Amino acid sequence: MEIQKFNLEELAEFLVKAKKATYAGDGKEVPSQRPGFKELEYNEGDFSYRDSYAGFFMAPGQEYVRFKGEPIWLMSYTGGMNQELFGDVDFAKQTFAFLKKALSLVNMSSPFRGPAVFRSEKFEYSSSVKGDISSFKGRERIWHDSEAGEKSNGINLYDLDYIFEQDYIGGLVIPKTFIK
């Protein structure tokens, strides 16, 4: 039984391009299909991608890919800034600017969020995921190094404060029309 009309490697390649061209790449918002949401879109060939989210300090959302108009892949995410930091818009903006840098490093082997570890200035990002493009779940976190501390592999691990956390889950959507 064949259940795919697309190649998973092509899907991963498309996801990497789409993510780099939208939120991680400061893509322009498109008219929202849902009132109160911000939406970003990327299209190439038979694939189309949309990222839809609401909120600021906490900003749950959903990304999905269509192939020839049919939904084929979806990822939901939820989380945001540590609740103790709600209200500090400037620090949240700095954190989100760093998050975009991390997300711009998305790669084909793990085309969900950012790399396993990324550090820049006083921020550190980590993403741990189980599964593959067909079915996965993961968590990403950001810490801020407010003091120099003990290092492991050159990364300050013991003096970091957790400032952002988000869970994500998703995988393939198999429409009835794809079953032969």
Write up what this structure looks like:
With 180 residues, this protein is of the alpha+beta class. It has one domain (8-178). The chain has helices at residues 8-21, 89-103; strands spanning 29-30, 38-44, 47-53, 61-67, 70-81, 117-120, 123-132, 135-145, 151-152, 155-156, 160-172. The strands form two sheets. Strands 1-2-3-4-5-11-8-7-6 form a nine-stranded antiparallel beta sheet, covered by helices on one side. The longest helix has 15 residues, at 89-103. The radius of gyration is 17 Å and the shape is globular. The model is unreliable at 150-157 (pLDDT under 50).
Radius of gyration: 17 Å
Give the CA-based shape. globular
**Secondary-structure element series:** HEEEEEHEEEEEE
User: Are there runs of 5+ residues with pLDDT below 50, and where?
Assistant: 150-157
- Note the total helix count: 2
Number of domains: 1
Structural class: alpha+beta
The strand line-up of the biggest sheet is 1-2-3-4-5-11-8-7-6
Query: What percent of residues are in strands?
Result: 35-45%
Distance between the termini: 6 Å
Beta-strand segment tally: 11
Query: Largest sheet, if any?
Result: 9 strands, antiparallel
Q: What is the mean pLDDT?
A: 88
Structure keywords:
180 residues; 2 helices; alpha+beta; 11 strands; 9-stranded antiparallel β-sheet; two-stranded antiparallel sheet
